[in-house]
Amino acid sequence: MTAYYSQDIHGPFETFDLGDFDLESGDKIRGLKLAYATFGELAPDKSNAILFPTWYSGTTKILESAYLGQGRALDPSKYFIILVNQIGNGLSTSPSNTRAPFNAARFPKIAIADDVRAQRRLIAEKFGLEKLALVLGGSMGAQLTFEWAVRFPDVVERAAPIAGTARGTVHNRLLVSTFIEAIESDPAFEGGWYAEGAAHRGLRRHARLFAAAGFTPDLFNHAAWRPLGFSSSEDFLTGFVEAHFLPQDPNNLILLASKWRENDAARRFGGDIVAALASIKAKTFVIAIEEDGFFPLQDLAAEQKLIPGSELRRVSSIWGHLALFGLDPGYNSAIDTHLRELLAA
């Protein structure tokens, strides 16, 4: 696991030390570090900065591979792009890289708002930024995007939450709970005090639940995984989905999933989601994947209607929610089209 969360696999990345950091829960992280990577050059007037936080189980290297490049909407020759790793993802401060006694199962509870407040300090203290041309993110990254737009409306000029909501639905919270329970169901999990590699059965169980809801039925029915070189659906599930999760730390994944499950951008508005979304000043494109089983189109559409001047943009992919990984050229092209239009607005 230590080797997985490394510069060799997910670098190059840098770290920003925020010191002792007070959490929304009233607890604190001692010596919080955010891992981040930047691409492109910041304009003299600092008008071209984009922030792109990671999603569940993702890292900045995954975002770079799937969304950045010459000729893409997120082109480092035009924009200064900051990719930032969530607290708990194994690169930023996490259960797996924190020293005892606050490591592993003793790591404090984190909220999406904690990530956003920490990222606000990163852009201000490290880069001197008071405005962001765009904040975007997929899935959990969309949750962070909504929190950014609600919490710091005068900082975010444009927002593109992709395949995620500002507040979790009952169904979504149930789904995420099954992911957590699958990991914890492994007898080797030992309440979070497992030996390295011991809880792999729980991770495999979790991976298959993730695949069942994250991909579309048509992906399996039409063997759309064949171009990736897999010989059967079982080969794909083992060699692609299990392979993605097995190197990761179970406590890290549970921490991330707990943030996902408990997310609510309206918390600072006393739970009033109408008031929270009405406070957004950013030009916002809410981007939905039509076949998404994690964050269904109708849930995104309902929230989008509450955001002043916003637009609902739709993309389609046989990969469902997990089109986010950039495996579908059609999805990639559609996302670039929407982001280009938003950035030109």
TrEMBL record:
Residue ranges annotated for the AB hydrolase-1 domain, each copy included: 70-325
Active site residues of this protein: 139, 292, 321
InterPro entries linked: AB_hydrolase_1, AB_hydrolase_fold, HAT_MetX-like
Superkingdom to which the source organism belongs: Bacteria
Pfam name, any one: Abhydrolase_1
UniProt GO MF annotations: acyltransferase activity, transferring groups other than amino-acyl groups
Protein name, as recorded: AB hydrolase-1 domain-containing protein
Native organism: Methylocella silvestris
